[in-house]
Each structure stands twice: as C-alpha cells, then as structure tokens.
Amino acid sequence: DEAEQAEIVATTLAVLDQPGFEPLFGPGSRAEVPVVGLVEGRALSGQIDRLVVTPDSVLVVDYKTNRPPPVSIESVPRAYLVQMAAYRAALRLVYPGRTVRCALLWTEGPRLMELPPPTLDRHAPGASA
Predict the structure, then answer these.
(1) What share of the chain is helix, strand, coil (3-state, %, to 5)?
(2) Separation of alpha carbons 61 and 105, rounded Å
(3) Which of 24, 47, 79, 106 has the smallest set of CB atoms within 10 Å of its CB?
(4) C-beta separation of 68 from 81 below 8 A
C-alpha cells in the first residue's frame, strides 16, 4: 500500500542522509556482493549488503530491519553474529593482511553498530559455541 511504500522511501533516505555513512555509499563501495566458498571446512553462500575495500581494510555491512533494533551487542540475535563472523572469515582469505571489520546497519534510527572482534571470534566458523 501507499503508506508502506512511503515508509520504505523515508527509511531509505534516512540511511543515505545519515552523517558518517558516506563511505558506505561512496566511491569504492559495492552493493550486494556475493560470497561463496569453504571456510573452516564449512560451505558459505551469502550476499553482503555493502562492502567497502581500502588498501588497508575491509568493511562488511549488513542491513537489518528489526523493530526495535537491539540496543547492545549482547542483544543482537546469535544468527546475525554467526553470519557476520562467517563473512569476516571468508574475506580474510580474500584480502590477507587487511583488517576486516563488520557492522550491522539497523535501518530504524538509522544506526550503524560495529561488531567487536572478540564477539566475532566467538561466533566464527570452527569456534566452539
């Protein structure tokens, strides 16, 4: 319906206009990047919403629409942490020597939540849960 379409447009524009989000949508960033491979002997097939690659680092961002969004890392659904840890593990193989950072972009707000490396380590492929 029209109200739902208007809400989607407003949310999208809010994300694009958010100060500090420019690198996510600027030159050198890519949208909807497929990632497929074996990581720690496990098959991985997914799609990264936004990928920013620089000479020194890689930033992986996935959009999430939870309402309300989690207020802390501790309240992020485990499935999201496992997903992002798998993406990080795969991209470390593709971009050796570069720091790979991961973040969730909560569309309500909008708010970018960077995921701490120790949290991703605990959820990485091959890590004991």
Answers:
(1) 35, 35, 30
(2) 7
(3) 79
(4) no
Residue with tokens 């960033």: 29
Model-level pTM? 0.83
Beta carbons of 115 and 102 less than 8 angstroms apart: yes
Q: In the numeric block, which tokens belong to residue 20?
A: 């500090």
pLDDT digits (tens, 9 = 90+) for 35-72: 998 888 889 999 999 999 999 999 999 999 888 999 99
Kindly state the tokens that stand for 28: 């050198």
Q: Which letter does DSSP use for residue 78 in this model?
A: H
User: In the beta sheet, which residues pair with residue 38?
Assistant: 43
CATH of domain 2-123: 3.90.320.10
Residue 107's identity, in one-letter code, is: T
